Amino acid sequence: MKIEFLGTSGGVPSLYKTQSQHSEALHRTGPAIYIHDLQVLIDTSEDIFYQLRRSQIYDIKYGIYSHWHPDHTMGIRIWETLNYDFINKVPQSKTSKIFLTEQQKSDFKKYFGHWEHLNYLCELGVIEKEIIANNGQIQIGEATIEWIQLAEEIAFGFYISTSTQRILIIPDEIKDFKPIDKLKNVDIAILPFGSNEVNPVTKERIHEAGMLEALNETRFEESVGIAREINATHTYFTHIEATESLNKSQIRILEQQLKDDGLSAVIAYDGLQIIT
Ligand SMILES: [Zn+2]
C-alpha cells in the first residue's frame, strides 16, 4: 500500500515561520493524507489544490474527514475542482464518494456551511455522500476502513486492514485517547505530533508557559505516550505546528531520542510516501 503525506502542518499554518527537514518540502502545508491504492483522500485543507498538483493526483474515488475543524476542511471545494467537467455542453463530471459519520453530519451542519456546500456539490454531480455510523466501516477492494471515534468525540481516526496489513491513521485530536487492543501492534501508526511549549531539542521557549494546558492542546509527550501504547512497528508523526519550527538537524536528534527510548518513529514531511 502507498500512503502519502500531502500536508503535515498543524492547525495554525504560518506564512512566515514554517520549516521541515526535507530540502524539497521546506514548508509544511495543511493536513491531508492520500492512500493511493484505495484512491482515498483524508481531509481537504485550504492547501489541497497545490498538494494534489504537486503529487499529480487527479482521480480520487473516495473522500473521508477526520473532523470539521477548518485546517481539515476549508478546501472542501476541491471536489468541484477535481471532478467538474467544464468542457462539454452536458457536463460529464466525475463523481467522488464522500463518507461522513453521524457526528460529522451534525458538525458539518453547524459550522462554516459545510453541509450546504456538500449539498451543492451533490447537485453539481461531482460528489455523492453517504452517512455512516460513528463506528462505521466500509469495504474498498480487499481493504476495510473502520472509523474510530476519539475521546474528543468530534474527531475520528481510521483503522485500515487487509489480509496482510493493519494501519491506524489518527490525523488530529488525540488527547486522552485510549487505544483498544485491536488498535495495538499495528504495522503502521500515523499520529498527530502534539505541541511543545519549549523546543524539544534546544529547549527554547515557543509558547507562553501554561498555554497548551489552557487551550487543552495535546502535548508531544502525551502523543509519544499513546504511540508507545499502540506500539506500531512503524510510527509516523504528523500535524506539526509551524511554531515548532524544527529544522533538519533538530528533527534528526528528536528521532534519535525517540529511538533511544525505544520508539521507532519518523517525523513526517510534505510529500513523504510510505510504501508497505
Ligand atoms: Zn488539525
From TrEMBL:
Keywords: Hydrolase. Gene3D superfamilies: Ribonuclease Z/Hydroxyacylglutathione hydrolase-like. This is Metal-dependent hydrolase. The keyword Hydrolase applies. GO terms for molecular function: hydrolase activity. InterPro entries: RibonucZ/Hydroxyglut_hydro.
